[in-house]
Amino acid sequence: MSLSDSDVVLSVIVPVLNEAGVIPELLTELMVLCEQSEVGVEIIFVDGGSSDNSVGLIAASPFRVLAGPQGRARQMNFGAAAAAGSYLLFLHADTQLPDWAFSRVITALQSGLWGRFDVRIRGDAPMFKVIAWFMNWRSRLSGIATGDQGIFVRETAFIEAGGFPDQPLMEDIALSALLRDREAPVCLRNKVETSGRRWQKRGIWRTILLMWRLRYLYWRGVPAEQLASRYD
């Protein structure tokens, strides 16, 4: 999958840190999506200092892996700076894209400035369907997207917004707010599927209440650096 910079239309940027458990499936999925695409797509992984075999697995694939600074916002900004595409898609390692996702993103960005997918949560808990419905509804109402929804944006708009703010939490919310001030997002109803591990690890209701509280405090002006310690 060797492309010259002039051939690349879409750059997909994936920050990783100790994600060896999900990377093989992600690599397979991305290869299929690249084959589906009629235009040039590059995949850029940015490692934040993994101590597992994440880098080795990616290095054995056709995709690029860069050693970047630690911290998801910094990793994504680092990847964007190295990207050749005029369109950018930021993808979490545990998020699966729908079929023809790259074509859908390119079509959306030909008329819009930025956007995101709807989301479903992977797992057996019936409550996951309710959580995902509220996430998608809230995003449409507020014009704010989360990283789990696969944020995509024109490179020019991303640069003009200053990229992801350099903060350890809520970087997706902060970028969304900056982009929303310019234009409402394109909200694709095609669903990405994100892992339910965060909810399963802490407990579903405990995680819901925690995220509501953190977002409320962030909205009230509490620095993300303070909130990050409560999230860990």
Could you give the topology of this structure?
Layout (H helix, E strand, L loop, with lengths): L7 E9 L6 H14 L3 E8 L6 H6 L4 E4 L4 H11 L4 E4 L4 E2 L4 H11 L2 E9 L4 H16 L9 E3 H7 L9 H10 L5 E10 L1 H6 L1 H16 L4 H8 L1
Parallel strand pairs: 1-2, 1-4, 2-3, 6-8
Antiparallel strand pairs: 4-7, 5-8, 6-7
**Total number of helical segments?**
10
**Structural class based on helices, strands and sheet pairing:** alpha/beta
**N/C terminus separation:** 37 Å
Question: How many distinct folded domains?
Answer: 1
Q: What would the principal axes of the Cα set say about the shape?
A: globular
Protein name: TIGR04283 family arsenosugar biosynthesis glycosyltransferase
Subcellular location: Cell membrane
InterPro entries: Glyco_trans_2-like, Nucleotide-diphossugar_trans, Trfase_2_rSAM/seldom_assoc
Pfam families: Glycos_transf_2
Quick recap of the structure?
By secondary structure, this protein is α/β, with parallel strands linked by helices. The protein contains 10 helices and 8 strands.
Architecture overview:
It is found in: Cell membrane. The protein is an alpha/beta fold and 232 residues long. It has a single domain, classed as Spore Coat Polysaccharide Biosynthesis Protein SpsA, Chain A, CATH 3.90.550.10. Helices cover 45% and strands 21% of the residues. It is built from ten helices and eight strands.
